[in-house]
What we know:
Blueprint: H1 2-48, E1 51-62, E2 68-77, E3 83-90, E4 103-107, H2 114-124, E5 129-138, E6 141-149, E7 154-160, E8 166-173
Amino acid sequence: MKKKKKWIWISLLILVLILFGLQRYYVYVTQDQRKEEALAIQVAQEQLGITSPDELRKYVWGDKNGSDNIYWTMIAKNKDNQDVMVWVKFDNNNAPVQGKGGVHSELLQNGMTEEQIRTRFSSEIPGGEIKRIMPGVVNNIYVWQVYYNDGSHNYYRFYRFSNGEQVDLVYTLPNS
């Protein structure tokens, strides 16, 4: 009986150590992401005076010259307590871009919502299954990116944030 109790305690100790190790590994792996997220919020607060940042998302899209456009997007409240969409541009060294074009915001009421884009997409592509919708930037245009499947391929389609017009870009992903 004593031996059985001893092995139960040893097993529990090993389980706790494994869980602790997994938690530390997760913290280590995600530390860069959390640091970028905090920098994006800090820059937006300093330059725009935003409060209550929410729905932070990292957006990466390549441009024509082969480099990546990296943005952190968020919904927040501005100084006047209005909801805004914010884009914070990052360089390839994972630092916020300073100066003109580093931070951009638009009032949500002056743009399209995710739900409006979803409705518009469904009317244009009735059989399309939306996998993800997220704000981003393509060719210096602030957009909603729709990633979807039409039953045969996966696609990216872009709609202007300001008015919901489709940007003349549709990317077809190869089947794997």
